[in-house]
Amino acid sequence: MPVLLGVNIDHVATLRQARGTRYPEPVQAALIAEQAGADGITVHLREDRRHISDRDVELLLQTAQTRINLEMAATDEMIGIATRLRPPHCCLVPERRDELTTEGGLDVIANEARLKDVCAQLSAEGIQVSLFIDAEPAQIEAAVRCGAPVIEIHTGRYAELTDPAQIRAELRRIHEGLDLALENGLIVNAGHGLHYHNTAPIAGLPGINELNIGHAIVARAVLTGLDEAVRAMRTLIDQAAWRG
Ligand SMILES: CC(=O)[C@@H](O)[C@H](O)COP(=O)(O)O
Ligand SMILES: NCC(=O)COP(=O)(O)O
Question: Site: Transition state stabilizer. Where (predicted)?
């Protein structure tokens, strides 16, 4: 089975928000990603709206050719937005306002009653719910009890490690978590911090359904697109320049 690729376009919006411009447009980025082979588009609507906005989510839902995976905290505000917009997929993630990026998986055990309720509410709207969790057996078992059909295994710790033995150990832990989740009938995605040098071992784990990757793809696009972007500006200036 091919592993699906969800392209996270948060950081296209980060670039836009850095200047308050109308570009780059996440909708355009989504269409390019889809044409290049993305199976889905992932966006994280953060409570502080630091990158993706409500307007982006609405437009993406109207324009995406594939499917939108909305990442969000399990807050009343976000649940209101999700039940109104009804994205096909919704991934519940932990969120701290002052974090640079997501720092770990949800503590499903500590928030089981609430998450069970949220899973039921979103599922009733026809949304496929996923819980973003670490590859911890107890968290996986709690996710099963919550009734979420999907989990996304947090690969952030794996991505941060530099020692080969520790990387192998973390990969083993993710593999064991994946197996446990599959035995329990879950669909298993993975993501966070994956890039061009660390994705292959995760993509090679048998049974992984989808990888969600964003920062590394957008970062690479900035560099691979730079040559064309400079040439276009060079041409524009040369054509406009006054020749006395
Ligand atoms: C939940 C997760 O792993 C990330 O996709 C998350 O969306 C990262 O948030 P930022 O894009 O704001 O770094
Ligand atoms: N859920 C992970 C995701 O969407 C992308 O994370 P990253 O590649 O931007 O770290």
Answer: 152
